[in-house]
Amino acid sequence: MPQTPDTGAATAEPDTAAEEAAKLLEEARKQAKELGSQAGFDRMTAARFFASEIEGLNKKNIKAPSVKRAPKATDLGTIDGSGVRRVFNARHGELQACYERALKSDPELRGKVTLTVRIGDGGAPVMTRARSSQLKSKTVLNCMEITSKKWLFPAPQGGTVLVNKPYTFEPKI
């Protein structure tokens, strides 16, 4: 049975097919009465068969296939907090540059941004996300994510570490 690609729910095609089968069955009955021929009987038999098959499909509970999600990474590692702060402080200017480029086209641009970094083996970021409910510029947020992905932090011990760092950006007066 066809499935819609986004939800996996059954489509409405069986209802349309059932209507067509019912019409075909009615037409075959009329033809069989009028002609009394074997052809009418064969069409009526086929129509009944298809109608019962389609009715059975309509009655079946068709469930969408289940989707198994990848397990979430567990950030069980530990890291040198002062080393992480040093990296954020030393690289703040790079994030400021992302903001100031966008500020040229939108002088009112301002807001708080939370930069989330998952630090993996060797101190390399394995994931970065910049989120803000105030600063309405995807360009700035994307720039911050790309920029921070290039940073190098102290290597965590015992697994990955998730770090959140808030920043506030405002135009200089």
General description of the model:
The structure is a single chain. Helix content is 46%, strand content 14%. The protein is α+β, with helices and mostly antiparallel strands. The protein has two domains: 13-59; 81-169, TolA/TonB C-terminal domain (2-Layer Sandwich), CATH 3.30.2420. The chain has a three-stranded antiparallel beta sheet. β1 (111-119) and β2 form a beta hairpin.
How many domain units?
A: 2
* Dominant shape: elongated
Total number of helical segments?
Answer: 4
What is the number of strand segments? 3
List unreliable stretches of 5+ residues.
1-12
Distance between the termini: 64 Å
Fraction in helix: 40-55%
CATH class of the largest domain: Alpha Beta
- How many whole angstroms does the radius of gyration measure? 32 Å
Could you say what the CATH architecture of the largest domain is? 2-Layer Sandwich
Decide which structural class fits the backbone.
Answer: alpha+beta
Order of helix and strand elements from N to C terminus:
HHHEEHE
Order the strands across the largest sheet as they lie in space.
Answer: 2-1-3
Average pLDDT works out at 79
Strand content: 5-15%
* Main beta-sheet strand count, sense and barrel state: 3 strands, antiparallel
CATH fold-level assignment of the largest domain: TolA/TonB C-terminal domain
List keywords for this structure.
14% strand; 3 strands; alpha+beta; 173 residues; 4 helices; 3-stranded antiparallel β-sheet; elongated; TolA/TonB C-terminal domain
Could you give a short description of this structure?
InterPro entries: MasK-like_C (IPR049806). With 173 residues, this protein is α+β, with helices and mostly antiparallel strands.
